[in-house]
Amino acid sequence: MLASRSLLSSRVAVSQLNLIRGAGLGRQCAADAAIPRSKFTTTPAPRRAVDINDPDAAKPTLDVDAYAKSERLGRPSSPHFTIYQIQQQMYMSLTHRVTGVGLGALFYLGGIWYAVSPYSSAEVVNLVHSLPPSVVFAGKFTLALPIVYHSLTGVRHLVWDTGRMLTVKNVYNSGYAIMAASALGAAYLAMQ
User: Fold this and answer.
1) Domain ranges (residues) in the chain
2) How many C-beta atoms lie closer than 10 Å to residue 95's C-beta?
3) Residue 35 near residue 44, CB atoms below 8 Å
4) Assigned fold of 94-191
5) What distance in Å separates the CA atoms of residue 42 and residue 29, rounded to the nearest whole number?
């Protein structure tokens, strides 16, 4: 129905244009043959604007270095971080990755240090017992927080992989729950 109406309206427009040309009222229409036209309308097809000062204007698109052109024109890299509103899940995703890398590095460096350290395990235990309780608690909390946080966010990602909890409300609520549970879990582990 719509296709037949648009076809009919384009035929009517063409016939009206032919009447105007036949009556001599459309003298500028003689040059219209050189203008490319769309199949279904009588209006000229849109042309691409070409900047004569652009050194890349004459080059084929694939031969143009888009990054160099954007830098030359002062355009920011796209997508640029300044156009996004920072949201909770952006921070949590970044923190999940940072804690994963940090825990991995700590695991390997701790193992290497233990292997090459001149101190025995008994000396390290005696050193820890000689520290004030507040320092021991702070150290345990600092070690426990990334472990608990990374574990809980990993479980959240596994739940997301099943297709559950993917609404915006559930993503935010699970994020708040993970932050609270991470703090409580790290405090619990630090008190042990």
Assistant:
1) 1-47, 94-191
2) 16
3) yes
4) 3 helical TM bundles of succinate and fumarate reductases (1.20.1300)
5) 11
Rounded CA-CA distance 132/93 in Å is 35
The phi, psi pair for 46, rounded to 5°, reads: -65, 140
Percent of the chain with pLDDT over 90: 55
The number of beta carbons lying within 10 Å of the beta carbon of residue 150 is 21
Q: Is the pLDDT of residue 57 over 90?
A: no
Q: ω into residue 79 within 30 of 0, thus cis? A: yes
Q: How far apart are CA 121 and CA 113, in angstroms?
A: 12
Residues with Cβ < 8 Å from 24, sequence gap 6 or more?
Answer: none
Single-letter code of the amino acid located at 110:
G
Give residue for tokens 């235990």: 125
> Which DSSP symbol is given to 163?
T
Contact 146, 185 (CB under 8 A): no
What pTM did the predictor assign?
0.59
Q: How far apart are CA 131 and CA 137, in angstroms?
A: 10
